[in-house]
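Re: [ENG-882] Designed sequences occasionally contain unexpected residues at chain ends

Forwarding the minimal case from QA. Structure tokens:
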């Protein structure tokens, strides 16, 4: 790992504050990043203090004045080069993501690939930031709309996707003409340091003004500072619903714009008309991928009572084959939870489920012994539960899967929708009527609804986000770019007169 860190420009002691082309000195406290894989210290950073924060904001404001004048295709070409740089660094950055966060190596590589993919998407988008033209009711007039950059777009990212979700925001923000301020999770700050080092080389080569890509680091207080800062028109925040409510309230109080990607409590409906072998694959990956620490992780299975026992048996057998261990070993399926606090939350959820009457058909617990010394490796578990259980209504960021039965498809949809969150959902069925009902206005109430694929694995081409306590934000593909810009309606009078609205006339 030392060779990986060296190639990514990470030192034993790192600055956690950057104006894009240089790391600046801060007198904030030191945060040490320990790997949940083996408990070893990776490196440390100095978090951003008040003075260095102000320097970053001033630099970003100055950079925006120039960056917004660059033609969007030219900005897009810079993003294209970032994609090429990420391709060259995919192996090293993927290993760092896996080691610092704890996800499997395949998922680490996959996360960097998402960054590359969003670069490709943003390059095409840079030539398509188009508005509408409208017919004016006044003769000799033309109306149209256009889109302009906002200014500083702040991105508060979570530990579970330490680089990909930032890139969804940053690449779009940059082609739209915004400058970006990144506050990475304090649990995975070194991934951000590595990304900034990669980007700085591209920016230097292209004469990009300093301040277009900034980083500030810190804990909750830094997020609060960003949310309350009126110089930042857009705050995109990914994390818990609790965090999102705090950020949304602070940004809303100053009439700023917030893009919130918050909790998920995602369900898969298993129809009696499902291909059970295919359904098993989607359910297994959804439940145990990233050790259940995805916002799109499958938390609930709603299974038709006629296939319940058969599918339960398949699922239990599949869990017996899971290999839990060092995520850098590609033979393992499941790595560790991010830290001891996550383990404690996992254990409390198990006890809560049992207290409410849940029955565990695959027992959980913390793994011990050689290879598990960090205390962060846990057993993916399965409980038979009822939809009304309080713990079932709650998102636990860990590999706990709840099973429940249904008799009618309307009942299944009602069970799925009857939780506070509304991110991702899926149905496994070969019944066309069920599939179409699930996707209709009387079906899933989530921002993402899938048929015959699981709840995880969203593609960057579609807008990503959810409803209800998930926050309502949309990132990545489709027309998500509009959130990073401001709309302006324009009217041009090329006639020889000036007709006024509502027939008003001045006799001059």
């Amino acid at each position: 790992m030392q060779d990986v860190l060296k190639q990514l420009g990470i030192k034993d002691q790192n600055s956690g504050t950057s104006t894009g082309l240089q790391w600046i000195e801060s007198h904030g406290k030191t945060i040490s990043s320990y790997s949940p894989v083996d408990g070893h210290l990776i490196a440390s950073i100095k978090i951003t203090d008040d003075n260095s924060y102000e320097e970053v904001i001033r630099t970003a404001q100055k950079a925006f004045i120039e960056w917004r004048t660059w033609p969007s295709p030219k900005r897009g070409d810079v993003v294209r080069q970032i994609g090429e740089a990420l391709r060259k660094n995919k192996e090293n950055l993927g290993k760092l993501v896996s080691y610092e966060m704890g996800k499997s190596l395949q998922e680490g590589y996959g996360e960097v690939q998402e960054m590359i993919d969003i670069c490709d998407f943003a390059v095409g988008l840079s030539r398509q930031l188009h508005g509408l033209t409208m017919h004016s009711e006044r003769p000799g007039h033309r109306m149209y709309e256009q889109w302009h950059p906002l200014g500083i777009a702040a991105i508060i990212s979570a530990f579970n996707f330490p680089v990909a979700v930032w890139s969804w925001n940053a690449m779009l923000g940059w082609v739209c003409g915004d400058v970006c301020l990144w506050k990475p999770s304090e649990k995975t700050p070194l991934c951000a340091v590595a990304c900034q080092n990669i980007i700085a080389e591209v920016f230097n080569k292209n004469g990009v003004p300093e301040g277009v890509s900034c980083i500030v680091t810190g804990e909750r207080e830094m997020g609060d500072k960003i949310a309350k800062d009126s110089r930042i028109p857009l705050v995109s925040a990914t994390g818990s619903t609790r965090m999102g409510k705090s950020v949304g309230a602070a940004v809303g109080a100053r009439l700023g714009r917030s893009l919130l990607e918050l909790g998920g409590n995602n369900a898969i409906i298993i129809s009696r008309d499902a291909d059970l072998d295919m359904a098993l694959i989607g359910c297994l990956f959804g439940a145990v991928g990233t050790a259940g620490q995805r916002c799109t992780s499958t938390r609930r299975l709603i299974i038709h009572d006629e296939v319940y026992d058969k599918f339960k048996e398949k699922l239990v057998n599949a869990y017996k084959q899971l290999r839990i261990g060092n995520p850098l070993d590609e033979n393992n399926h499941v790595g560790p939870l991010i830290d001891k606090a996550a383990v404690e939350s996992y254990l409390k959820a198990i006890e809560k489920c049992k207290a409410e009457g849940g029955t565990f058909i695959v027992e959980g617990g913390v793994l011990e012994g050689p290879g598990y010394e960090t205390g962060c490796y846990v057993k993916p578990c399965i409980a038979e539960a009822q939809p009304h259980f309080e713990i079932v209504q709650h998102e636990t960021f860990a590999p706990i899967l709840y099973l429940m039965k249904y008799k009618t498809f309307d009942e299944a949809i009602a069970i799925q929708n009857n939780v506070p969150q509304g991110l991702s959902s899926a149905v496994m069925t070969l019944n066309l009527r069920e599939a179409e009902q699930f996707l209709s206005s009387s079906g899933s109430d989530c921002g993402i609804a899938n048929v015959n694929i699981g709840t995880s694995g969203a593609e960057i081409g579609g807008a990503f986000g959810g409803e209800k306590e998930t926050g309502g934000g949309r990132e990545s593909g489709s027309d998500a770019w509009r959130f990073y810009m401001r709309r302006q309606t324009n009217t041009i009078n090329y006639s020889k007169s000036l007709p006024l609205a509502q027939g008003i006339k001045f006799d001059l």
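QA comment: On inspection the terminal residues look reasonable. The chain has a mean pLDDT of 97. Proposing we downgrade this to a documentation issue.
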